[in-house]
Amino acid sequence: xxxxxxxxxxxxxxxxxxxxxxxxxxxxxxxxxxxxxxxxxxxxxxxxxxxxxxxxxxxxxxxxxxxxxxxxx
Length: 73
Known about the structure:
- The structure is a single chain.
- By secondary structure, this protein is an all-beta fold.
- The chain is built from no helices and seven strands.
- Helix content is 0%, strand content 51%.
- Strands 1-6-3-4 form a four-stranded antiparallel beta sheet, with no helix packed on it. Strands 5-2-7 form a three-stranded antiparallel beta sheet, with no helix packed on it.
- The N and C termini lie far apart (28 Å).
- The relative contact order is 0.41.
C-alpha cells in the first residue's frame, strides 16, 4: 500500500522490496542498504537481497510494494 509502514522484525536475516505497479519511489530506514527516494523498477534497481540493520524498519513508498523476508526457525 502506498504510504508509510513500520514493522518490528524478530527472527529474520534477509528481506526484499519489489515494485508491483511500475516505477516506485522508496525511502527506508533500518536496512543494511537503505533507500533514499530511490526508484525501484524492473530492468533497473530492485531490492531483492537486502538485510536488516535494526529490528525496527520503516518503509515509505508512493506505490504498492511486495515485502519479502526469510524466516529463521
